[in-house]
Amino acid sequence: MKPTINSKEFKEAINVEQMRRSDEYTIKNYTDSKQLMLRAAKGIYDLQMWLNKKIAIVCGSGNNGGDGYALSCLLTKCGYNAQIFRIGNKFSDDGKYYYDMAIDMGVKDQLFCEDTDFKGFDIIVDCIFGTGFKGTAKDNAAKAIEKINSSGAFVISADINSGLNGDTGEGDVAVKSDLTVSIGYYKKGLFLGRAPDLIGDMINVDIGIYLV
How many Cβ atoms from other residues are within 10 Å of residue 5's Cβ? Predict the structure, then answer.
């Protein structure tokens, strides 16, 4: 699906604050946060496009990065060639859990720097920023976004293209994806602002979030 404000999906899309509340409600009453993160990763994994591909997963410091670490575990467990690139040395609690698991499984791990080159990869999974991001990507994150966009690889963005605002779809420096995998529910910013020009195709995966 190519995002458009005339679509049925846009009419059902929610804002970032509602997604945050729904996520918190689900974690408090129904599903452990680590399990939700694993479900998000499995939603991306189930795309089944990994065979004979060299995969880079570029991870930020929040739970979006955690989705990437969990994905690297699933891919490695099934024998696929995945490598982690970290934007920095910070982690969310759940992200650190799956990062440690990935390292224990032998996933290759590299800290992103100016000399990092993505050109040898067939698929890049963008897990730098989630839908709660606001402002402008800077420093290592901005450099990573630029290198992703110039890589020539097939780019998958997890939940939203990193650098875009989840409510407005605006962002000065943002990933251009071939596919964006929305997690839980579509967010308004996936259809607005720059998003339609930066998103190739888009799908949503249901991970059992109770909407409140």
Answer: 14
Strand partners, 182: 204
User: How does DSSP classify residue 113?
Assistant: -
Q: How confident is the model at residue 5 (pLDDT cuts 50, 70, 90)?
A: confident
User: What was the pLDDT predicted at 121?
Assistant: 98
E-state strands within the chain: 54-59, 81-86, 108-111, 123-127, 154-158, 177-183, 199-205
**Across the chain, which distance is largest between two alpha carbons, in Å?**
46
Closest CA to 94 of 23, 177, 161, 148: 23
Q: What is the pTM of this model?
A: 0.97
- Work out the number of other CB atoms within 10 angstroms of the CB of residue 208: 11
Distance (Å, whole) CA 100 – CA 159? 22
SS3 of residue 134 by DSSP: coil
Q: How far is CA 163 from CA 112, 125, 130, 134, 145, in A?
A: 17, 14, 8, 8, 8
pLDDT (mean) for 161-178:
98
Q: Looking at domain 8-205, what is its CATH homologous superfamily?
A: YjeF N-terminal domain (3.40.50.10260)
Please report, for the chain, the start and end positions of each structural domain, with discontinuous segments joined by +.
8-205
Predicted pLDDT of residue 6: 86
